[in-house]
Write a structure and sequence with these properties.
CPE0013-like fold, 17% helix, elongated
Length: 127
């Protein structure tokens, strides 16, 4: 029987509870240290299938900035972050781009959009 203990700092609220999760043979046996149900749910998710919002940049063609910042519309599996970052490195958009513009409709078939978090205006050309 493989027993494992993971300590997690909850990030759901400002309390920052230190949660201890005991895992045996891949199954959660106990969760201690949370002060609300959200903390327990966060700890369960964090040990079973951790997820994060991906924040990155994509190239902005003919823009006043060389890149535009983007983020995923919801968290993606932590195990997919590297692959998702690589996919974004190959993306470019044409200026103008507004905050909230959809850059990618379905990132890596995860059902997650990638949206702009900063505007990229058209480059002003000298006359």
């Amino acid at each position: 029987m493989a027993r494992q203990v993971k300590k997690i700092i909850c990030i759901v609220c400002p309390r920052g509870c230190e949660i201890t999760v005991e895992i045996e043979d891949g199954e959660i046996k106990s969760i201690k240290g949370y002060t609300c149900p959200l903390g327990k749910k966060y700890a369960e998710k964090e040990v079973v299938n951790p997820e994060r919002i991906l924040m990155s940049v994509v190239k902005c063609i003919n823009g006043d900035l060389p890149v535009v910042s983007v983020k995923t519309s919801k968290p993606i599996p932590l195990s997919m972050m590297k692959k998702a970052s690589k996919a974004l490195s190959d993306v470019s958009v044409e200026a103008p781009v507004k905050i909230g513009d959809k850059i990618i409709d379905n990132l890596l078939d995860l059902g997650v959009e990638v949206v702009a978090t900063r505007p990229c205006n058209e480059e002003r050309r000298a006359e």
